[in-house]
Amino acid sequence: MTVKVEKIEGGTPHNTIMWAGLLAALVCLYLGAGLNVMFNAYTFSFFGGLAAVAAIVWGSNTIKTLCSYGIGTGVPSVGMISLGSGVIAMLLATRFSWYYAPIVAVIVATIIGAIIGYMANDVIMMKIPVMRRSMTEVAIVGALMLMGLSLMATSGYSLLSLASNPGLLGILPNYGGSFIGASIIAVAFILGAIAVQHPFNATLGPSWQQDRMLMLAAECGFLTMIPLALMSIAFLSIPAVIVSLIVSVAGWLYTYGQYLCLSQRDAAAWLDAKPIREPEGH
Amino acid sequence: MTVTPKPTGGVGMNPLANALSIILLIAIIGATYILYYGVNPLIFNALIGVIVGGALIGFGVHFVPVGGAPAAMGQAPGIATGVAMLAAGAGLAGLFGGAFAIASNLGLMTSIIAGGIGGALMMAITCMFVVLIYTYGMGIPSASGKVKVDPITGDSQTEYKSQGTEGHGLPFSSFVGGVIGGFLGGLGGTLIYYALLRVYELRLPALLGAGLLQAPAVVPVAVSLAGIFAIGIFLVNAVLAAYNITGTTEGFHDPKFARFPRAIVAALAASAVCGFVAILVAAM
Fold it and tell me: For the whole model, what pTM was predicted?
């Protein structure tokens, strides 16, 4: 019934990217939260943004794997279902202490994603071979990404730190001005959804190259970090905000430059009117 | 490389998968009943509210006339964007309307109907400007490609349909379908929001360690948490329904509309899982 339209050509195999993305995201989350706790500081919150970048890079390759089958509804729908299922898993995980939370998020997202994948593949009868696996992966991506962004904005990912701000005097907690209370989580939600679906949506078509898409994914991730760093002014100390801003702006400038070079490389290959390149391998 | 086949599932259903989904649904409802009905019946009722809301969303999306890229080129009828975007727009507009009504303490029925009207209004405005732009901007008459006569007005369609297209513009029935879809989507989204808000208002003050005096201060957290969960569950159900439609649809007179039972089964099970986890956040 469904014919795979474009096969993954060359580049890094999807499994490698998946494990690398999962490990990098988890390590960054633990580094950020752990170092913040250990030094009783806010300075290491930017590791959350790096976890989000790792998750976005993994998620964009998952979306490429799924959408090359032609799902018929457009690439953005996968980004939306990724964050939609991810936010539910992530917020349940925030109930646990910082050393369990990322693992709990992965496990809960796996369960939710597997059930949604089963619904899409068997009940709705999409009959796409990678559907169940991809839905599971994008749910984990959404949960880890949102967890990273909340770590970056508020220096932690426990429900208590997300739902209450110590406030000016530090006596009465300010619930309305917190990450969840002020609905900054909704901004993080939609920033993440756009960042994860944009890379493949923008680079698909003839002469698609994996390295160009992944570089764009990293660029989208660092671009997402910049507004989160600005929003963290409300929650973090000024030095921590400056560190976050420097990391995100530097990362964005580097990846944007790299992406520009890769785009020029592929555009030149196209302008020379060669036949569409069919990379070897895989 | 050049062929772009899309999944073209018929109206058939997979009996085993459907049975498993129903078992999962009953298991989650039963688990919630055993765990929480004794604690507070409100928590159990909230899960039922979320499941019903999810099914309403999954059903409502099938009414929305989605044209996608072909509609932007005047080669297919409908609104020229994807299902997920349209459904999210209608659902979020409905959620805003419903949230205002809930904040004014107007009661459950008034609130969810206010939410439905918010979604219907958003779709009606969208459809009106789509017709204006198609007719006066692009010079495209409205003609359905799936039916010979419009099921509501009885106007003949075939004479106005251009050769080689699947119809174009936004026929009257699709307009009406869009408004019905927006109404159902807004209704479902607001029901989910209302159900979760009641649970969070009940449990969050104790969870966050806020005293009796500070309980009103926790309300923004409950509102935001219920809102983000409503958006998440809404998007999951809308995208599942979009996968069921696969591409373009004209609304309730389209042959693809007959596929809606399997989207409802999927929406019931998916929103049961999501709703259970969303309730656990506060109830655990």
Answer: 0.90
